[in-house]
């Protein structure tokens, strides 16, 4: 019973700190998949960041990955970065998924789900557009053809300095 109450308190506290538009993005410090190289979200201050939480079992992630890769390539000359975070517990599941793609951005591993919990993800994939000051400007859950158009528009507005 006590463990159950503790879990309810933890879940309630995460809900109170849900990552939503207009709020500062929760901190992230994670190692790359199959590496000890660590990335912190704060390392990207001054850039617009597309933060993408995904999993190998996520069907919409198969739709989003090619579009995110294209977005990264299209904006290579801008202060823009993509950071992908896999929540797969087993790294080999993520590796198997990634064999289909030539990913030009870091893939971080959140095997314990702490970063995902701090962002209160409602489903996979869930992505965030974060401005150069570390504030969440867009939260997007799921992915289907055509979704990247609105995401790209938000990113382009931020890159051009129009944050309205």
Count of alpha/pi helices: 5
Shape type = globular
Unreliable spans are: 1-16
> Largest beta sheet: what is the strand line-up?
5-4-3-6-7
Annotation, overall tally of beta strands: 7
Helix content bin: 25-40%
Helix/strand class: alpha/beta
Strand portion: 15-25%
Give a quick account of the main beta sheet: strands, pairing sense, barrel closure: 5 strands, mixed
Radius of gyration, whole Å: 16 Å
* SSE pattern, N- to C-terminal: HEEEHEHEHEEH
Can you walk me through this structure?
There is one protein chain. The protein has 164 residues and is of the alpha/beta class. 35% of the residues lie in helices and 21% in strands. It contains 5 helices and 7 strands, in the order αβββαβαβαββα. The protein has helices at residues 2-16, 59-74, 91-98, 114-118, 147-159, and strands at 29-31, 38-40, 48-54, 80-86, 107-109, 126-130, 136-141. The strands form 2 sheets. A 5-stranded mixed sheet has the order 5-4-3-6-7, covered by helices on one side. Helix 3 links the parallel strand 4 and strand 5. The chain is globular. Residues 1-16 have low confidence and may be disordered.
Write the layout of secondary structure elements.
Layout: H1 2-16, E1 29-31, E2 38-40, E3 48-54, H2 59-74, E4 80-86, H3 91-98, E5 107-109, H4 114-118, E6 126-130, E7 136-141, H5 147-159
Parallel strand pairs: 3-4, 4-5
Antiparallel strand pairs: 1-2, 3-6, 6-7
Short description:
With 164 residues, the protein is an alpha/beta fold. The protein has 5 helices and 7 strands; from the N terminus they run αβββαβαβαββα.
């Amino acid at each position: 019973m006590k463990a159950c109450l503790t879990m309810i308190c933890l879940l309630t506290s995460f809900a109170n700190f849900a990552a939503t538009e207009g709020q500062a993005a929760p901190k992230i410090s994670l190692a790359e998949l199959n590496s000890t190289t660590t990335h912190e979200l704060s390392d990207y201050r001054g850039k617009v960041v597309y933060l993408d939480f995904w999993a190998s079992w996520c069907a919409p992630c198969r739709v989003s990955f090619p579009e995110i890769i294209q977005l990264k390539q299209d904006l290579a000359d801008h202060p823009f970065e993509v950071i992908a975070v896999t929540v797969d517990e087993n790294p080999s599941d993520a590796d198997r998924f990634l064999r289909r793609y030539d990913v030009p951005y870091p893939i971080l591993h959140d095997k314990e789900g702490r970063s995902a919990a701090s962002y209160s993800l409602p489903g996979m994939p869930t992505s965030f557009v974060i401005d150069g000051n570390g504030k969440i400007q867009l939260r997007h859950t799921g992915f289907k053809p055509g979704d990247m158009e609105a995401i790209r528009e938000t990113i382009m507005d931020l890159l051009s300095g129009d944050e309205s």
